[in-house]
Amino acid sequence: MVQPELVDVVVLGLGVGGEEVAGRLTEAGLAVVGVERDLVGGECPYWGCIPSKMMIRAANALAEARRVDGLGGTVQVTPDWAPVARRIRAEATDNWDDQVAVQRFIDKGGRFVRGSGRIDGPGRVRVGDQIFQARHGIVLGTGTRPSVPPVDGLTETPYWTNRAAVEVEELPASLLVLGGGAIGLELAQVFARFGVRVTVVEALDRVLAVEEPESSEAAAAALRADGVEIHTGVKAARVEHDAAGFTLRGTEGEEFTAERLLVVTGRRAHLEELGLDTVGVDTSGRYLPVDDRLHVTDRIWAVGDVTGEGAFTHIAMYQASIVVADVLDQHRRAAGGADPSGTASVVGGAVGAASSLAATGSSGSAGSVPRADYRALPRVTFTDPEIGAVGLTEQQARERGINVQVGFTRLPSSTRGWIHRTDEVGFIKLVADADQGVLIGATSVGPAGGEVLSGLVVAVHAAVPLTQLRHMIYAYPTFHRAISEALRDLS
Ligand SMILES: Cc1cc2nc3c(=O)[nH]c(=O)nc-3n(C[C@H](O)[C@H](O)[C@H](O)COP(=O)(O)OP(=O)(O)OC[C@H]3O[C@@H](n4cnc5c(N)ncnc54)[C@H](O)[C@@H]3O)c2cc1C
Ligand SMILES: NC(=O)c1ccc[n+]([C@@H]2O[C@H](COP(=O)([O-])OP(=O)(O)OC[C@H]3O[C@@H](n4cnc5c(N)ncnc54)[C@H](O)[C@@H]3O)[C@@H](O)[C@H]2O)c1
User: Fold this and answer.
1) What is the spatial distance between Cα 40 and Cα 335, in angstroms, rounded to a whole number?
2) 3-state DSSP assignment of residue 5
3) Which of these, 429, 421, 395, lies nearest to 215 by C-alpha position?
4) Which sequence spans correspond to the domains of the chain?
5) ipTM strictly over 0.95?
6) Would you say 324 and 25 are in contact if contact means Cβ atoms under 8 Å apart?
7) Domain 154-264 listed as CATH 3.40.50.300
8) What integer pLDDT is reported at residue 368 of this predicted model?
9) Substitution site in 49, 145, 202, 205 for ligand 2 pocket (most atoms within 8 Å of beta carbon)
10) Which CATH architecture has domain 5-41+98-144+269-356?
11) Is Membrane there in the keyword field (predicted)?
């Protein structure tokens, strides 16, 4: 029988959230074991946010160059994927090697274990034949994997997920994109701008259906302008693959063909793999429900995509800071002024520092542990135009029975939009709670929609009174000045 190693905390999954928790707790002097089966950093740096935004940056540069005609001369644009693929390998992913990230954690004093971890009773984690007993508890940052719909024939075909799309070195002539959400739209536009014939097939009646209907329209219009074919309301029935490529058939007899098929129909947490049954946690849901300090149950926390609070890197980081504060608070209480690391084994040289933390009392009391608050959750879909949103959509607000006011303005009718020649693209939409006199949601679509959003996030987060927002000075002629127009339109 293998003896368990006694440590302070085990972090299972070192993606965005887990890496942050493990690193900061280690820096604070706790004995931390970080377990990762794939690459330290997770989806975002290797197959998600960062490489996809490098692709978008390149595609937008092509699109911007094409806009020179009629504004300042003529430009002949010849797309070339090679520099994009090179940049993703060399600058973003180190050819999908996480050695630097692993070493960073070890240098902080953490103990790194490569492998698939599983909970094995209270406070206990098993990785292969190693067992760790965590004195303070376990943090789950195990993320999600692509959710592949049960379409006849699909799993037998060599379809792409986001990983293959990011790793591609030679572009196909044509691409079918199943799923018109954030990933589908961002990647569809990139590939279209590099000359790929792209078709998006979406089951719902509009793309980007989680956002305002006006956002869906703007995204669809922009992609169509780039040559993307968009089909909504299609229920995929069957997928076939042969030497010529893929055929996707819909339940109404629709037929779409392309050289490659990219499946981006959402993500799924694989809770059944985590051994949560050994601690009495129900895993029948889609995600792992957590309270506002990210507790799943006693001494088990979760961060990031696995919590289902929003699949965004900024959510994982936000939640990580709360977990770090909560674990340190628990650690200090457990120490009771004595050397708290005395009962834990020496892990990666971390021993001893925990007592200095207890002595300085630097992390505040239980009352100071911040609580998670998602009212002002920002989202940005990095299509061109960017689609930024915060808080509730109009429909969500109405469904909650709020006395809603809506303000809307089109960017092309603002001075900056007109100068910039945004054509028919871009708008600001505000959703206000008329009784409270504050904004509870907003959408900003335009060339810098994600950046313009920041002021609106502050307004929703801090519940800035509408009277204050109306009496603010908005620089002329900026894109964000359109917010003052939308405020005037609130009714
Ligand atoms: C194409 C794409 C583009 C995106 N763009 C953006 C963007 O622009 N902005 C944004 O905010 N978000 C974006 N996201 C979402 C973002 O990548 C995720 O929200 C983020 O990665 C979540 O971090 P996480 O730590 O929860 O999970 P992950 O990053 O998924 O990490 C979880 C880690 O846990 C490991 N793991 C799982 N189970 C175990 C186990 N049992 N034992 C050991 N290790 C385990 C996995 O190997 C993985 O490394 C994008 C995602 C994709 C796919
Ligand atoms: N810019 C960003 O912040 C960014 C970018 C990419 C991804 N992400 C995150 O990653 C998450 C996952 O992205 P995603 O695009 O895979 O998921 P998503 O849930 O955003 O979109 C999936 C889309 O696929 C559709 N769909 C589902 N089943 C289908 C089927 N059988 N046939 C056709 N369409 C189907 C859904 O209706 C939906 O529109 C997002 O929720 C987002 O939080 C964020």
Assistant:
1) 30
2) strand
3) 429
4) 5-41+98-144+269-356, 154-264, 385-490
5) yes
6) yes
7) no
8) 82
9) 202
10) 3-Layer(bba) Sandwich (3.50)
11) no
Residue 183 Cα to ligand 2 middle (Å) = 6
Q: What's the pTM?
A: 0.94
Closest ligand 1 atom, CA of 303?
26
Residues of the chain with pLDDT under 50: 338-364
Asked if domains 154-264 and 385-490 share a fold, the reply is: no
Considering every ligand atom shown, identify the ligand nearest to the alpha carbon of residue 45 and give its number.
1
Q: Among the atoms of ligand 1, which is closest to the Cα of residue 162?
A: 1
Name the CATH topology of 385-490. Enolase-like; domain 1 (3.30.390)
Chain mean position to CA 185: 15
- Residue 99 CB coordination number (10 Å): 10
267 C-alpha to center of ligand 2: Å? 7
Place of tokens 């959703």: 431
Please tell me the predicted confidence (pLDDT) of residue 397: 98
Q: What is the pLDDT of residues 275-303, one digit of tens each?
A: 999 999 999 999 999 999 999 999 999 99
